[in-house]
Prior knowledge:
Blueprint: E1 7-9, H1 11-40, H2 49-73, E2 75-77, E3 90-96, E4 101-108, E5 119-121, H3 125-130, E6 138-143, E7 146-157
Parallel strand pairs: 1-2, 4-5
Antiparallel strand pairs: 3-4, 3-7, 6-7
Amino acid sequence: MAEGKKNLLTRAGLNKLEKELHDLKVNRRQEIAEKIKEAREQGDLSENAEYDAAKDEQREIEERIVTIETLLKNAEVVDDAEEGTINIGCKVTLYDKEFEEEVVYHIVGSTEANSLQGKISNESPVGMALLHHKAGDDISVETQAGPIEYKVLKVERSNEE
């Protein structure tokens, strides 16, 4: 992760990362310390699979803590979008003209993107094309498969946690 690069997050995304960090530091570190202690008490560490597994888990937890701390250190919460204008933190209902169906996206920063949950990054082709538009606007998104045509039906502030 590039140092100094701002990580744009929604308020919900920031809260989620802060909760995960707290859980890792307070609960998971304690749990793994107990597992390591119990494994040590079993004797010979050179052939102790539980000890090795616990140490691997400990390493993964510590790496995740560092990752989250770096994300939070460079986090910028985006909450100040003009009402009715698409920005990070918005839930957008679109009409897909080709498939003649409605689709709903949550516009989030790249660190929160998850297409399976309908969360698209402001840096993705669709996300970039949608930014700063309002309900009623027609939008064309250039993709590798060709242009996709949308009509913006509704723009709401997302209150998703």
